[in-house]
Amino acid sequence: MWRSCLRLFYARPPQAPRLCLTPPVGGPSLSLPGTARTYTPPTERKRFYQKVSISQGEGGFEINLDHRKLKTPQAKLFTVPSEALAIAVATEWDSQQDTIKFYTMHLTTLCNAALDNPSQRNKDQIIRAAVKFLETDTVCYRVEEPAGLVELQNNEWDPMIEWAEKRYNVEIGSSTSIMGPNIPARTKDTFTSHLASYNMWALQGIEYVITQLKSLILSMGLIDRHIPVEEAVLLSRLEEEYQIQQWGNVEWAHDYDLYELRARTAAGTLFAHLCSESSTVKHKLLQD
């Protein structure tokens, strides 16, 4: 399965002719004909600190920028429950060069969301939102043509559905109907119970991955370490990769989308794992 998916990716034809592209200056900027949509790089800031370290406080592990404690956008003390997660976040801050590029710091963003909870959702609401993706899951929606894409979807997505059905002892199925597959209530209840076993922090990471891949099935395959990030991302973009193979890609734009999706998906998966595993790292951290 994975090999044919990789063959599709590496079989990409040369880049398609230019559409209406603005060269990247300080970050990508893309305008397509007939639209007013333009990608504008998020705000950056000049680096204002020299050293990054972590320390343990009463509420967990904290991030120190020189002698200042990191705070969330809502001015709360930035405290995470896992030492391993604190190291990962500190590494994000330490890896910034002269300019802090906040849009590359996905773990920091996830921690801020968990601490500030700007949407004010509780655990049950997050679980309901995650399970609702089953009704529109990427791997459950199939096309009826062209034949090449139909075959590709069957070859690549059917094994993922079969894995999920066996792993969780549920029925999922797929459909070519615009209404999507009819997901049994028992299946939704099973996934609801499974997600409820995660703590609030890990659950937010899982939901983040689901929203990136538009698929609960692919996301659980990642969280359960059944498939790697690269495979999950390609499977979530199967139709797009097929179209690129047929018609070519838009210069750097499609590749940028691919690598950015990989980064976000990897960050969400790592975040979920680090928040659901208890670990202590016993050595000097980012001091040298």
Could you characterize the architecture of this molecule?
Helix content is 49%, strand content 9%. The protein is an alpha+beta fold and 288 residues long. The strands form 3 sheets. Strands 4, 5, 6 and 7 form a 4-stranded antiparallel sheet that branches. A two-stranded antiparallel ribbon has the order 1-2. A hairpin with a 6-residue loop joins strand 1 (21-22) and strand 2 (29-30). The longest helix is centred in the last third of the chain and has 24 residues, at 253-276. It starts with a helix and ends in a 12-residue tail after the last helix. The model is unreliable at 13-42 and 279-288 (pLDDT under 50).
